[in-house]
Amino acid sequence: MDRSDAALELHLELTSEAELDALEQALLKARASELTEVRRRDIRLTAGYGDPTNRDVMDDEARAAQQRFDALSRVLEALRDARAG
After folding, report:
1. Which of 41, 77, 34 shows the shortest CA–CA distance to 56?
2. CA atoms within 13 A on the CB side of 3
3. What are the tens digits of pLDDT across the range 29-62?
4. Contact in structure between 72 and 30 (CB atoms under 8 Å)
5. Does pLDDT of 28 surpass 90?
6. What is the DSSP letter of 3?
7. What angle separates helix 52-84 from helix 17-46, to the nearest 10 degrees?
8. How far apart are CA 2 and CA 43, in angstroms?
């Protein structure tokens, strides 16, 4: 199965606004962490750190962090849309 066009449907039952707030805060914290990683890797790459092999690894790690950041952004967007009702 080609995962590039797969959809994920997720159902969560949160019993209070406080739980919803806590989930949003946790997602924001995780997304901020990934953004920090993306920026750190990009700075190292643009500054010319490492040999070509290490730079390839750093590039792969930066790409993976960007994908996680993008995924968390989509989850946060869906959460905010659900809250808006």
Report:
1. 41
2. 0
3. 999 999 998 888 888 777 777 777 877 787 888 8
4. yes
5. yes
6. G
7. 160
8. 33
50 torsion bin: left (phi>0), alpha (psi -120 to 50), beta (else): left
Query: In whole angstroms, what is the distance from residue 67 CA to residue 73 CA?
Result: 10
d(CA 69, CA 77): 12
| Block residue for tokens 């092999």 | 53
Buried b (16+ CB within 10 A) or exposed e, 5-43: eeeeeeeeeeeeeeeeeeeeeeeeebbeebbebbeebee
CA end-to-end distance (rounded Å), the chain = 33
Domain parsing of the chain, residue ranges: 38-85
Q: What percent of the chain has pLDDT over 90?
A: 42
> Per the structure block, which two tokens stand in for 8?
């994920």
Amino acid at 43: I
Rounded to whole angstroms, the Cα distance separating 85 from 83 reads: 5
